[in-house]
Amino acid sequence: MDDPTIEPGEPRDRELSIVIVGPCASGKSTLAVNLREIGINARVSGQEHSEISSLWRRQDPDMVIGLHIDLETLRQRRGSSWSEWLFESQLRRLHDAYAAAGLHIDTVMLSESEALQAVLRHLESKGP
User: Fold this and answer.
1) Per-residue pLDDT at 126
2) 31: number of CA atoms within 13 Å, CB side?
3) Looking at residues 43-57, what average pLDDT do you find?
4) Are 105 and 68 in contact (CB under 8 A)?
5) Bridge partners (DSSP) listed for residue 44
6) Is residue 64 scored above 90 in pLDDT?
7) Which of the four pLDDT bands, split at 50, 70 and 90, describes residue 94?
8) Which of 10, 94, 102, 114 could tie 110 with a disulfide, CB 3.0–4.6 Å?
9) Beta carbons of 70 and 25 less than 8 angstroms apart
């Protein structure tokens, strides 16, 4: 997290519970860590690994954030041998979670800080 306007540990909204979903290498863990560092209750759901389409709901989130990447970016981040069928399988498994997401972020061209700022802008637009 390299944005000087965000103070680590600064509470934003301790009541809000966020679940982040997306394919492997989309930035779920990084975004969750960065949100928790500023006091937002954010968790990752491994929905892309489960055939249980409602797995993400078990965390009873107030908000779902769907992260998106393309296969080329996934291969750049995780290795060129990543198979298309596995990527397509993950997208299929994410269908219901994506449908429930109140915010979608394409992380292909965004830095960690830009993804975090996109979430904060969205939360601010929703008000207190």
Assistant:
1) 83
2) 31
3) 92
4) yes
5) 20
6) yes
7) very high
8) 114
9) no
- As given in the structure block, the two tokens for residue 29 are 């863990």
Q: Is the dihedral of CA 19, 120, 28, 48 positive or negative?
A: positive
CB 2 within 8 A of CB 113: yes
CA distance linking residue 54 with residue 72, whole number of Å: 27
Compute how many other C-beta atoms are within 10 angstroms of the C-beta atom of residue 22. 27
Look at residue 102 and give its three-state secondary structure.
coil
Half-sphere exposure of 46 (CA within 13 A, CB side): 2
Residue 62 CA to residue 83 CA, distance in Å, equals 33
**DSSP letters spanning 52-82:** -TTGGGGG--SEEEEEE--HHHHHHHH-TT-
